[in-house]
Structures are given as C-alpha cells and as structure tokens.
From TrEMBL:
Gene3D superfamilies the UniProt entry points to: Aldolase class I, Antifreeze-like/N-acetylneuraminic acid synthase C-terminal domain, CBS-domain, Divalent-metal-dependent TIM barrel enzymes
Keyword Disulfide bond: no
One Gene Ontology term of the molecular function aspect: N-acylneuraminate-9-phosphate synthase activity
Pfam families named among the record's database cross-references: AP_endonuc_2, NeuB, SAF
Keyword Membrane among record annotations: no
Database matches in PROSITE patterns: AFP_LIKE
Organism field: Neomicrococcus aestuarii
GO biological process: carbohydrate biosynthetic process
Name of the protein this chain belongs to: Acetylneuraminic acid synthetase
Domain of life: Bacteria
Alphabetical UniProt keywords: Carbohydrate metabolism, CBS domain
Domain spans labelled AFP-like: 404-462
C-alpha cells in the first residue's frame, strides 16, 4: 500500500468535459481520476470502466458532458488519518485506488494498493522503467558549496538521474554538543572530526539544492536526525534516503514516513529480522519505500557483496529493490541491474585522494559515466520475456548464411512437388528447410529452373503480382542489372533505381540491355566496397577520405554512362550514403560539425555534371556488414536540413531511416518530415519499428502513412519514390507489389 500525496495527475474538476478526464486517465496510466469541486471537495471517481459503461448506454452522447455526469458519485473514501494497515480492508473487489479526505471532505491523498513502484520527482521507479541511478555526493563536497555545485554539474554530465547529499544537526544528533569527541573511541573521533569540518548547514545545502533544480536533476538527501527531516520536508525535497546506520532507528523512520515522502532505505549493517521489522513499520505508515541491498564496508570485499540477497530482500519488503555499492569498480552495480536492481547508488567524487573515507570508494566522473552507459546497455540487452523474433541484423545474416529450399531440377507449371524435387542449398533467401513438409504435395504455379528458390508464396494459391499502378508522383522500382527486366514484365514504372553492389561497377552494363528503355532511372552508391570498405566522406583519415571520394566519383561516372540506355532526358539522381558512422558510440552535436564540413569539402572535389546527388537520411543504428554500428550525420533532422540548405545538397528522404532517427531522438516524426521534405528530391518509402527495425513492409511498422502522405503532398509534391522493402525483390518482387498496393491508397 502506498499513500500518494502528489494528487494532481489524479484530479479533474467535476465540470470539466469528459474528454479532459479521459486525457488525464491516459496520462497517469492508472485508469482512474477523481472529481473535485472548485474548493477541492471530493465529489466522485471516474474510471475507464465508468466511461465504457456510460458510452455503451449512451452511444450518441456528447463528449462535452461533465466528468461528474459520468463518474461514480458514491465512490468509497476514507479519512486521511486512517491507519495504513486498515486501508486494505476498505478496498472492495477491483478497487485499487482509495481517495483520502480531510475532515472537511477535501481530497488530500490517494491510497494505491500496489508496492511495485516508487515515484521520486519526475521519475517512476520499478518494473518496466530504467534503473534510477543516484550519484551519492554525501559529504564529498568537503564543506564547499562551490565544490558541491561542481559535483552536481559533473553528475548531470555523467548521466545520473539524481544526486544525494547528507544533512545533520550536530547538536541534536550526537551525545556531546557541537560534535565534541572527548572520551569517544578512535573511530568515532575520526568520523566526528570529519563531520565537524565538512558538513554543510541546511541553508548552504539548500543553495546547492536550488542549483540542482536549475540543472534539472532530482535531488535527495539523507537526514540523520528529526530536525533535519523537518528542514528537508519544509524545503520540499522530493524523497528521503535512510542510511544503513538508521535502519533500526524507528523514531526517525516514523518521522520520515509521516511526511508523505518516498523513502529509499539502505540495509547494510542490519540483520534480516531488523530489516523485516523496519519494512513492516514503514509499510504500516503508508509510506512509499524501496530497500537497497548494501554491504557497509569501505571498500567492500567482493566475496561479501552477495547480490543474490536482493531476491530475498524483494520478498521481505514486497517493494522495489536496488543496490548501494561501496566496492571498487563499476561492474558490480551493472551486475546488480542485470539481477533486477531498480535503483543504483554509488559514491561520486572528483578526487579519490581527498580527506574522508567516502572518497576512496567513490567513482570519478568518467567512471560514473561509464557505469551509467554500461547499465543502460545491459537494460537494453535484458529486454522482455516475449516470444522470440528474428532481429533485422539476424535476418540479414540469415539470408547470407542460412540455407533455403530450392528446385532440384527444372519444374514446369502444374507439376506436383515431391521430396526429390526439392534440395537444400545456401544462401537463405528462400523458404527455410523446415518448411519442406508444407511444400511437398503442392502444385507448382510458376516455371522454375534448377536452383531457383522456393518462397512463402509457393505455399499459397495467390501471390502479389506486378501491374500498372497509379500514383500522383513518379514511382520506380529498386533493381539490379540482372533482375530489372523480369520486374518490369507486368508493369511500367516511371523509372528504375539501380542499387549497385561494388561488383556491379565492374561489369559490362551493355550485356544487360537490348534497347533503350522508355523511362528514367536513378542509382544508389554501393553500401560496401571490396576489402570491407565503407564510403566515409566525413573521415578525417586522408587515405580513407580520398578513396571515398574516388569511389563516389567512379559511381557518378557509371551513372552518367548509364543514361544512354534510357530515353528520359533528365539528369538522373544518385543516392549517396555520405558517411559519418562510428563503431562504438554516437558522437556529440559539437563533434558533428567538423564532419559535415569535411563532407562539404569532399563534394566540391566531385564532378557531378549530368547527375543530381542526393544525400540519404540515415538511421541511428545502421546494419553494416552484418552488425550494428552508429550513424551520426544526416540523422538529426535539424542539422541535416541545415547542411542541405547551406551546401545546396538535396536529400533522399528515407522514411524508414528518419522514422527510426526520430524515435531515437525522441522528436515527433511529423516535425522531422516538415524540416526535411522541402529539401528532398527523392523518396525511399518503407516502414520502421523501434530504433533499428528498418526495411519493414509498408503498414506493418510505426509510420502513420495517411499523415505522412498529406505532408509529402504539401511539402514535396511530384517528388519521385521507390518502395524500398528489405528483400522486396524476392519471388519476383512480391514485397514491392505488396507495398505499392498499399501505397496506392495514400499517394
């Protein structure tokens, strides 16, 4: 049970239209809001179930109807002073949220029957959310407000979600006023001496907290006494941390829990019975809380860390669990996240040799940043317990490395397949070998040569075919020299786009044509050249840069030469992936500028007469040579559009790539299109999923095609396009025909 006192996400005014209530229900993700009058008096509860019942009974209802008109006006509530231990009995079947009111009926809090989530500031902590990473500054500011602010800034740069400090009132905390150490043991004398020198008073610490707000990082603090609890609550701290040393201090726990603030409690130095007792205490008080597994030695030996105890801690607390580490290095917190920790706390300093024992077990800013990065990578790798799917990169490698079912001999239309008619051969472009039982016994519906692949369409009675499509702009097909003739047997596109392999640049193009084709064409720079070479016009390595320029120029020359096989008198477009990729990380915006300048310099060295260069927009995680890497340029729509305008370089807007980039950058895809479409002379139309699922069939990914079509008609009218479905050419273009069928509705 948790008592939520930040009630704004759960409250609507009774007279608000029902649409406002639905928006709040969607935003808070709790499926309920509460109706109050202008004075905050509770008047009813509105759940998504209430709305569904109402709309079924009133199918013609006006969505301007008031929230109270739909709400349950007899919803159960309870006085705010009701003990948390009694609230559960007031929640009937299906009730998970109980409004708590004061003696005048004002809604002041909500009891929520769950313990698997913790809210601290803007962060929701728990299953399905990234780990909440705390940079424990503590007293590592060594009594300096300026150093404390510097540590906050460095924690922001390192990717911390929160910073944490400590507050003590020395007179109320220690048995001798002013932190006097007379008669104390050596260890206590050392600690008190440090605290006397380095503790910041509340007023100074609050100045640092204000700086945290300016830097938009959540601040937490450990109170070591009741006066500090009161000072922090009065300041408006979003959450309190209870130190391991105070886990058995029930007086302090009661005080902290009574403030309506979420608590994070470390369990170092405590026995299991003590942990149980304290967890039961704060639970009975209705506090939101989490338990951190902790080994309170500085530094902690690895043999004593015992991360497996987090599982037990979760059972004891029935709450969010995390890890507070004092061991050397960053690998144990990363392992803790892999084991389920939803909070990680590590000490943070700028100098491990400074006075004070915390510095010695603290991470330096670069180390903390590396830990954050590793944790985020591990979280990505953990994923979900869903049915396994084949990733884009795996699919590419499957095509190259796996085996397929192929015709063992020449087959005529109408023959019935036997096992002897089918062989298993590489590569994996066709049906996988395990489809053999489904294939045997079927009737062949297309003539096949020995070695031809069987495809999914061979298991059905109808397969999409080429036809004369109608669009409001020029459309084309992506082809290779060897398959272009077969793909245009049943349709006449406005142009063909030749996606060159590096070997295509060396063949005799004349051997693939018998007469000029009455259409136009575009070309696409090879993605890979001999020797695993990737074109990178942004490279600072002179040899790589000069070879990149040479390979682009060679492709331009071949594109110019190809014009004699096409009748359309228009300079062809050549799509170029300009480069700027990295193998280990994304570079910062500041690092991108010189690379864009390098590309601009390279473009000036090219002879592009008779050819229109189009820079392709790129995804954040390209699949290059069977593995995932990082793109940096032509990714962000702002700097891409700026480069296009400043250098007069037009774009090939690849919808899949840009949708992936928008998702990665957390910007609306429609805004990206608004920036890029006006600078676009060519389109690759294809869907996308997530941040790296490219080449997806139209209508089977995340793109909103009706909205996109409206934008393209308005911002890029008459701009040509191809359907660039991954493996769309197999089975005589089956993927292309499906995409074009679907696109015809919108274009």
């Amino acid at each position: 049970m948790l008592i939520e006192r930040q009630i704004a996400p759960y409250v609507v005014f009774s007279e608000d239209p029902i649409l406002n209530g639905l928006r709040k229900i969607s935003a808070n993700k709790e499926r309920i809001v509460f109706c109050v009058d202008a004075h905050g008096i509770l008047q009813g509860a509105l759940s998504d179930g209430d709305f569904r019942r109402w709309i079924v009974e009133n199918p013609e209802a006006d969505l301007e109807t008031s929230c109270l008109g739909v709400a349950n006006q007899n919803a159960t509530s309870a006085p705010i002073e009701t003990p948390a231990s009694e609230l559960g009995s007031l929640m009937g079947p299906g009730i998970t949220h109980l409004p708590l009111v004061d003696d005048r009926g004002h809604l002041v809090a909500i009891a929520i029957n769950r313990s698997d989530v913790l809210r601290i500031g803007k962060h929701e902590i728990g299953e399905g959310n990234p780990a909440f990473i705390i940079a424990e500054i503590g007293n590592n500011h060594n009594g300096s407000v300026e150093l404390a602010k510097q540590l906050v800034d460095l924690a922001v740069e390192a990717g911390a979600d929160a910073v944490k400090f400590q507050l003590r009132d020395m007179d109320s905390l220690y048995r001798q006023s002013g932190g006097s150490t007379a008669g104390e043991d050596l260890g206590a004398q050392y600690t008190l001496d440090l605290l006397s020198k380095f503790s910041l008073p509340a007023e100074s610490l609050f100045e640092v907290f204000d700086h945290c707000r300016e830097r938009d990082i959540t601040v937490m603090c450990t109170p070591w006494d009741s006066k500090s609890v009161n000072d922090l609550a009065d300041y408006g701290i979003p959450g309190l941390k209870i130190a391991s040393a105070d886990l058995t201090n029930h007086e302090l726990l009661r005080d902290a829990a009574s403030r309506g603030l979420p608590l994070i409690m470390s369990t170092g130095m405590s026995r299991e019975d003590e942990i149980k007792e304290s967890a039961e205490l704060v639970r009975s008080l209705g506090a939101q809380f989490a338990l951190l597994h902790c080994q309170s030695t500085y530094p902690a030996p690895f043999k004593d860390v015992n991360l497996a105890y987090m599982d037990r801690l979760e059972e004891i607390g029935d709450c969010v669990v995390g890890y507070s580490g004092h061991e050397r290095g960053i690998h144990v917190p990363v392992a803790a996240v892999a084991r389920g920790a939803k909070i990680v706390e590590k000490h943070f300093t700028i100098d491990q040799s400074m006075e004070g024992n915390d510095h010695k077990v603290s991470l330096l800013p670069d180390e903390f940043k590396q830990m954050v990065q590793n944790i985020r990578e591990v979280e990505e790798a953990i994923g979900q317990r869903n049915a396994r799917v084949v990733s884009t990169g795996e699919m590419m490698n499957r095509v190259n490395l796996a085996k397929s079912l192929v015709a063992a001999r020449e087959l005529a239309v109408g023959e019935v397949l036997t096992e002897a008619d089918v062989a298993v051969k590489s590569p994996g472009r066709g049906l996988q070998p395990n489809a053999l039982p489904k294939l045997v016994g079927r009737t062949v519906h297309r003539a096949m040569a020995e070695g031809d692949f069987f495809f999914q369409g061979d298991l059905t009675d109808s397969v999409p075919q080429g036809r004369q499509f109608e669009f409001n702009r020029p459309w084309g097909l992506p082809v290779r020299y060897h398959d272009h003739a077969a793909l245009i047997e049943d349709c006449t596109p406005d142009f063909l786009e030749f996606h060159f392999s590096y070997k295509d640049l060396d063949v005799d193009m004349d051997s693939f044509f018998t007469k000029p084709l009455e259409m136009g064409f575009t070309t696409h720079l090879p993605d890979l050249f001999a020797g695993d070479f990737l074109v990178d016009l942004a490279s600072m390595d002179r040899d790589r840069w000069e070879r990149s320029i040479a390979e682009v120029q060679r492709t331009i020359d071949i594109t110019r030469d190809l014009r004699r096989w096409f009748t359309k008198d228009e300079d062809p477009i050549m799509v170029v992936t300009m480069g700027g990729f990295t193998t280990d990380r994304h570079i910062t915006p500041a690092e991108r500028l010189p690379k864009y300048e390098r590309i601009a310099e390279a473009l000036k060295k090219l002879d592009t007469s008779g050819v229109r260069i189009a820079a392709q927009t790129l995804p954040p995680f390209p699949w290059l040579m069977g593995g995932q890497q990082y793109h940096n340029l032509f990714l962000d729509p702002k700097d891409t559009a700026e480069f296009a305008i400043q250098t007069d370089t037009k774009l090939c807007l690849d919808i899949s790539h840009t949708k992936l980039a928008a998702t990665f950058l957390n910007v609306p895809f429609s805004e990206a299109v608004e920036l890029l479409a006006p600078e676009t002379i060519h389109l690759h139309l294809v869907d996308a999923t997530g941040v790296d699922g490219e080449g997806v069939q139209v209508g089977e990914g995340d793109v909103d095609w009706p909205v996109l079509a409206e934008q393209l008609d308005r911002l890029a009218p008459n701009v040509s396009f191809i359907p660039e479905i991954w493996q769309g050419h197999v089975n005589n273009g089956e993927g292309f025909w499906t995409a074009l069928d679907r696109l015809e509705k919108w274009l």
